[in-house]
Amino acid sequence: MKIVILLNLFLLGTSFSIFAQQTENPNQEEKQSLSLITETAEEGFEVAIQLARKGVTSTQPDKDVLFMLRDVYSKDPDALIASSQVIAIHFQTVAAANNYWRQENEDQ
Fold first, then answer.
1. What is the pLDDT of residues 44-67, one digit of tens each?
2. DSSP secondary structure string, 50-87?
3. Dihedral (C-alpha) 37, 41, 43, 44: value to the nearest 10 degrees?
4. Buried/exposed 51-62: b ≥16 CB within 10 Å, e otherwise
5. Torsion sign across C-alpha atoms 23, 26, 27, 33
6. Do 49 and 36 contact (CB within 8 A), yes or no?
7. Beta-carbon neighbour count of residue 89 at 10 Å?
8. How far apart are alpha carbons 86 and 53 in whole angstroms?
9. Which H or E run contains 31?
10. Rounded to whole angstroms, how far apart are CA atoms 69 and 10?
11. Is 87 left (phi over 0), alpha (psi -120 to 50) or beta?
């Protein structure tokens, strides 16, 4: 259980604004759309990271708690390995959604 919590916290990274943008009204948030469809595998990997981070912020929305624990999970090798596994699972999903980058760009 501890590793799962630490894993989710690690994936948060340093940016909370990746998924929500402040509009002109600071009390209102506009959600950024996130698509699984990407042009390249590199873009797909970035989407996988965003999905993992979104899971963290959905699980623990309290930024103070996340920052407080960052020093612990960022130095835990088990948490680091587990975070890589979560990203890899998301990347598999993105790759499948992109037909593994359209069969290598339609076999070039």
1. 999 999 999 999 889 989 999 988
2. HHHHHHHHHH---HHHHHHHHHHHTT-HHHHHHHHHHH
3. 50
4. bbbbbbbeeeee
5. positive
6. no
7. 12
8. 10
9. strand 29-31
10. 9
11. alpha
Q: Residue 83: how many CB atoms within 10 A of its CB?
A: 25
Q: Helix 2-10 crosses helix 77-97 at what angle (to 10 degrees)?
A: 60
Half-sphere exposure of 78 (CA within 13 A, CB side): 7
Q: Is the pLDDT of residue 2 over 90?
A: no
For residue 46, give both structure tokens. 């970035």
Contact 91, 34 (CB under 8 A): no
CB atoms within 10 A of CB 10: 24
Give the contacts of 17 (CB within 8 A, at least 6 positions apart).
none
Alpha-carbon 74 to chain mean position: 16
pLDDT at 7: 45
